[in-house]
């Protein structure tokens, strides 16, 4: 559910537009591209509904050109009618001046307060109250100002990756059996036989293979390394999209955008994407929170949670997003 890629898939398509419009013409001989009217998933965007405090509002208002922060969720669901827990929780931050992108993963087991529920894992917020509550939970616990979101699932992620021709991933020997196990599970959902990964090393993975890869948790440091895999897949896809050129536009608009659940309109996406990919900043900075130094695993009623020092975690997150200070460990 490295589905963060979608943000970037979409943003890539916009880099070739000088401004947002209903029909795009590019100078490469391609026919005009008509933007499909994707369904916008409405959420209430009042500060109260989003959990943006007056203190945060004042802090953001005092900043000159603050970054745009967008929540990215990848929901663990086996059919399109389930809400499901958010298997991936990320904050995508876009600098309005330099157009630099930052990805901040929030570990899904982080023990936070969910309005109306009490203390629970942060990934439960989406299952309880959908994107509205999920965004509100991030804003309330980390003093953020997120107003929009993207969401994907197993099915849409795999389809989008395949539409782009797959992604290059360096698979480790010890990851192969777990990758293939998840691949078997994912393939069983639509009853299409999987194509297993047989060798380690840098290789082109299909959509389902890439999704399976990003779900690996048993190799290395559990969810800590899994979020790294998610961010690495997204970064690789972003790089691939940048090199695709205008020929990628029809693919993006007809095979990517329709699968993306978002609170943003096509015009908003074009505006953001065009600014990002027309910039000279092509490197994506990434980090995950909470840090090891400010968190520890605990058990409550025999359920594992990641308890974090929320003051230190919020400070480190803000330093990364707003001040460009890379976190330690």
Describe it for me?
α1 runs parallel beside α8, α1 crosses α10 and α5 (154-163) crosses α7. 39% of the residues lie in helices and 21% in strands. It has 329 residues and is an alpha+beta fold. The longest helix is centred in the C-terminal third of the chain and has 20 residues, at 223-242. InterPro entries: LytR/CpsA/Psr_CW_biosynth, LytR_CpsA_psr. Belongs to the LytR/CpsA/Psr (LCP) family. This is Transcriptional attenuator, LytR family.
Total number of domains: 1
Q: CATH first level: which class?
A: Alpha Beta
Q: Describe the global form.
A: globular
Between the first and last Cα atoms, what is the distance in angstroms? 24 Å
Work out the helicity level: 25-40%
Give the H and E element order: HEEHHEEEEEHEHEHEHHHEHEEEH
**Relative strand content:** 15-25%
> Total strand count, please?
14
The CATH architecture comes to: 3-Layer(aba) Sandwich
Q: In angstroms, what is the radius of gyration?
A: 19 Å
Q: Let me know the largest β-sheet.
A: 6 strands, mixed
Which stretches are low in confidence, meaning pLDDT under 50 for 5 or more residues running?
Answer: 1-39
Helix vs. strand class: alpha+beta
| Average pLDDT reading | 82
**What is the strand arrangement across the widest sheet?**
11-8-3-4-5-12
**Number of helical runs?**
11
- The CATH homologous superfamily corresponds to LCP protein
Question: Under CATH, the topology is which?
Answer: Aminopeptidase
